[in-house]
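Deliverable D5.2: sample structural annotation.
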Amino acid sequence: MQYTISELAKALEAQAVGDTSLTIHRLSEPGSAGPGDLALASNRKYAEALADGTAEAAMLWADADWQALGLKAAILPERPRYALSYLTRVMDQGQGFAPGIHPSAIIDSSAVIGENVSIGPGTIIAAKAEIGAGSVIGPMCVVGWQAVLGQDTYLREHVSIGARVRIGDRFHAHPGVRIGGDGFSFVTPEKSGAEAVRETLGGQGHTKDQHWSRIASLGGVEIGDDVELGANSVIDNGTIRATRVGDRTKIDGLCHHGHNEVVGNDTQISGQVDVTSSATVGDFVVLAGQCGIADNISIGNRVVITAATKVMSSVRDGKVMMGYPAAEMKTHLEGYKALRRLPRFLRDVSELKKAVFKTDTSD
């Protein structure tokens, strides 16, 4: 896998300077780059490390003085980090999954397999499942009964897709993804202690000790086009209607998405986020790591939720939320600053009390 500087710059719609015929074999960090590498030095700080390596070519920034850095050639994109998304894709050697269907794969005779599909060892494709053309289904995966996967799906190893799940084109699932398990939905014969707490905001009353009865999840999962799920993420079936994830949404590893949840388009969800049952998340939303979204609430469009924030009530469009319980970021920071000043404030009050209430004990 090799490209010239000219070829890469043309694909990036970026300026190429110097000897653009130089051939690139791999990408490298500046300090360890050598001849044949493209050093990734997207700003001046990273470029300082070029002196520690022997790179002849680098991807820099738009107005970089590439000659002063001792390079023979450079690519100068307007937005280097965006350019990196292309470069890493074209230089990715993949996982080495072999083409064709491995002899150990178990494929039901009623399954529909598109053209140019790769299916790895130990994988199971259930009855009436459909796999779109150009897809790669890695080793030890399971695609359930009547599940439908669009074109150019890419499943890494140990991915499970449950019955009746429907997924669009160019879906990408990392190892251990689980889609289509039952939602965590249980009910007691009479009002439970948890229900009483929710109603009273604290009191359980005289609820009985009762067993839990499972509510089955019949609704399946529906996922749009160009969606990506990180390792060990989970999306549960809806109870009656499907749990839904919109187009181009990206979900990091170790995330949980509860039954009946709806996530919009172009939303980014970082690691360890939990979006609980029947919550709605809008378009162009960012949920940073370890957020928690309570059940049955709505997150508007273009909302940003900062890391470890716990959202207990609905959020309007465009808000930036922080803290536990979540508040607008500006409000939260003002409250935090006030809390930091509290010890000094209490000391001042104590000194004032001593001055005001000082008693003369002399006879």
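Annotation notes: The chain is about 15% helix and 25% strand. Helices lie at 5-12, 44-47, 80-91, 193-200, 329-356.
The annotation will be released with the project's public dataset once the embargo ends.
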